[in-house]
Amino acid sequence: MSQTTTTQTATMPTSSSPPSAIAILSQPITLPCGLTLPNRLVKCPMQETQAKGPYFNPPIETFKNLYSLWARSSYGLLITGQVQIDRRFLSIAGDVCCHEGSLEPDTLGLWKEWARIAQKDGTPCIVQLAHPGRMSPAGAGIRPKEMRALCPSEVPVQLGDTWLDKLALDKVLGTPKAMTIEDVDEVVGMFVRGAVVARDAGFAGAQLHGAHGYLLSQFLSLHTNRRTDDYGGTPEKRMKLLQRLIYEIRALCPPPYCLSVKLNSADYMDAGRGLEIEEGLEQVRWLRECGMIDFVEISGGNAEQKHSGLHNSFGAKTVASGQKMKESTRIREAFYTDFADRVMQMKSDVPVQLSGGFRTRTGMADAVHSGTCDLIGLGRSAVLEPEIPRAVLLNPDFDDEGALAKSHVVRGQWFSKMIPVKVIGGGLPIQFFYYNLRRLGRGLKSDPDISIPSMIAVSLWETVSSGLLQTLQRLVAAFSGGQRVKME
């Protein structure tokens, strides 16, 4: 069990009775940097896809709706959606970016307003900093057409086996450029700049995105890192970029600034094609023992499946039946919980956050109470039910049987399966969550019932109507003698 020191404010029962699920989740926790989180529920980083080029600054007009909603919903911590560190290389159109002008007064003012909105009700918020590396698609950022995406080594993405898959991947991602030492140095400077912008804006800290096959994960991986210099060739050298970032950020952002790292257990599964499990555990061990990291987030599976071992303390749960789980999903989720268990066997005061599949109050409380993790990450629930901590999970008006996130399956997935190109069809279900994040940004409620075909139709109509509006505005400007007309 984690040895993290906690400051408990919730009323706890006597030693003769087990603590209630709400009491466990309501326990504050003080991180090594001194930052105290009011409870154990964390809003996971999710891409809002609302920023506009060419600078991709924080879109305050929509963030004031989105982050105000999360701010008043009683999370213990908010982690922003991905903030890319280089506007040439985004992971998807609409990513917020920290760029060369972000410390200028006008732009930093936008960042300060974002931090103020997110933290106005007392919940701390940290900024997730990311670089997609070889996962940056053409057209998402401002890089010239001839500029290739970056990777530790020249290893292209493989997704799908048909000639259409290969053609689409070549057009969208292409073969990445193996980074030079100068490229590495530039990336380090950009990550450090992002951390400083978060600090100067008033955020509580930053998280380094080392998961999901992004650039930091690519350096950690034996498959994508085939270098023979100081940044590859041995497990220690594959860690050098991440370690360098931590050292250099900490030199400029000491405590109480919070510094976190996100990893994904699925990245450690395939021997020879990803990160070996023992090497991965040593990476986590270094993070938890280096004295500079305040918590490690691990995502990658569904923590409430029966094989996860989280059904011990609180008995049966009211969980609606979902789709039959694929064998590959079942294997991944078993690996996820086994990996998390081995991480928590390490003796360390650095908390661990598990993100993935938590739905029930009792499952979350059991994970914390049993020492499986210290913090609970809420991702898709924070999109479909953004107020769920205050409204349900920490609300005593709901008993344990009824305190759970709604079971949800994205409708219309048959449509994505009809598309013969995997890189396109396989990405449609996640667009459902981007769509609903944009709804929340406009001050609307999530629409959990919209299907993939309907979502595509709505998005196409919005694109066309927006184009018609801008054309009309330009015509009005022309006939009015060239006066400036505001473009939305």
From TrEMBL:
A single GO molecular function term of this UniProt record: oxidoreductase activity
SUPFAM superfamilies reported in the protein's UniProt record: FMN-linked oxidoreductases
Domain of life: Eukaryota
InterPro entries: Aldolase_TIM, NADH_flavin_oxidoreductase, OxRdtase_FMN_N
Alphabetically ordered keywords of this record: Flavoprotein, FMN, Oxidoreductase
Residue ranges occupied by any NADH:flavin oxidoreductase/NADH oxidase N-terminal domain in the UniProt entry: 27-391
Similarity comment text for this entry: Belongs to the NADH:flavin oxidoreductase/NADH oxidase family.
Protein name stated in the entry: NADH:flavin oxidoreductase/NADH oxidase N-terminal domain-containing protein
Organism: Friedmanniomyces endolithicus
Lineage, top ranks: Eukaryota, Fungi, Dikarya, Ascomycota, Pezizomycotina
